[in-house]
Amino acid sequence: VEVGCGSGNLLFEGPRLPARTVIGVDASLAALKFCISRRRDPHFHFSRAAGERLPFRDHSVDLVILVEVIEHLPEPALTLREIARVLRPGGRLVMTTPNYDWPSPWPLLEWLADRSGLVAPMKDDQHVTRFGPASLAKLLQRESFDIVRIGTMYGGSIAVALASGRWADAAVRRELGRGIRHGALVYTVAR
Questions:
Q1: What CA–CA distance (Å, rounded) separates 181 from 168?
Q2: What digits encode the pLDDT tens for the residues 32-55?
Q3: To the nearest 10°, the Cα dihedral for 19, 172, 108, 180?
Q4: Which of 101, 108, 131, 132 could form a disulfide with 136 if both were Cys (CB 3.0 to 4.6 A apart)?
Q5: Rounded to an integer, what distance in angstroms lies between the CA atom of residue 24 and that of residue 190?
Q6: For helices 133-142 and 76-86, angle between their N-to-C axes, nearest 10 degrees
Q7: Model's pTM, two decimal places?
Q8: Cα dihedral 167, 152, 75, 122 sign
């Protein structure tokens, strides 16, 4: 299940998982209609719901993906509590969010994006809750998740991406292997 699936890019273009059913959940009807128009496949299903009220039975989901969503939620604990409810014992949550801890480049990138006028304003308008690795870990633990791995990515690889996608992929793999502290995004795997 991807909560906050948006246009479905991660579901459709991401790594193929050995799942019988892949479900995209989003509160936006327009986003879901767009997803359905892109892919008509019996393995893909879409459901309109907010993360605080997922339409699944208790302990019925193996994997929940929450990518670039939690920072938009005024009460992220409610969504995490709901994810914990639907995950099977041993099920996993994979999540990313912007890293607001110094020396992450994210605050500068957000400031530049907001000043450019090329995107809708992020600071305080879209990104209402800010995390770094420690604050995200604390919230996850408070909501009864066990953290398998937490770290940051997209430090120097952001600049490398301007030169070559292949070089950027290699740089991200190195960053994940070394465990950098200054990456623009926080990534988490929890159960």
A1: 18
A2: 999 889 877 778 889 999 999 999
A3: 100
A4: 131
A5: 20
A6: 50
A7: 0.85
A8: negative
Alpha-carbon distance of 73 to 28, in angstroms, equals 14
Q: Are 186 and 105 in contact (CB under 8 A)?
A: no
Nearest to 148 by CA among 79, 71, 94: 94
In this predicted model, what pLDDT tens digit does every residue of 113-152 receive, in sequence order? 888 888 777 777 788 899 999 999 999 999 999 999 998 8
Which pair of structure tokens corresponds to residue 96?
A: 């990313």
Strand partners, 46: 24
Residue type, 51: G
Of 83, 93, 78, the residue nearest 148 (C-alpha): 93
Is the CB of residue 54 less than 8 Å from the CB of residue 83? yes
CA distance 116 to 111: 9
Tell me how many helices (H) and strands (E) the chain has: 7, 7
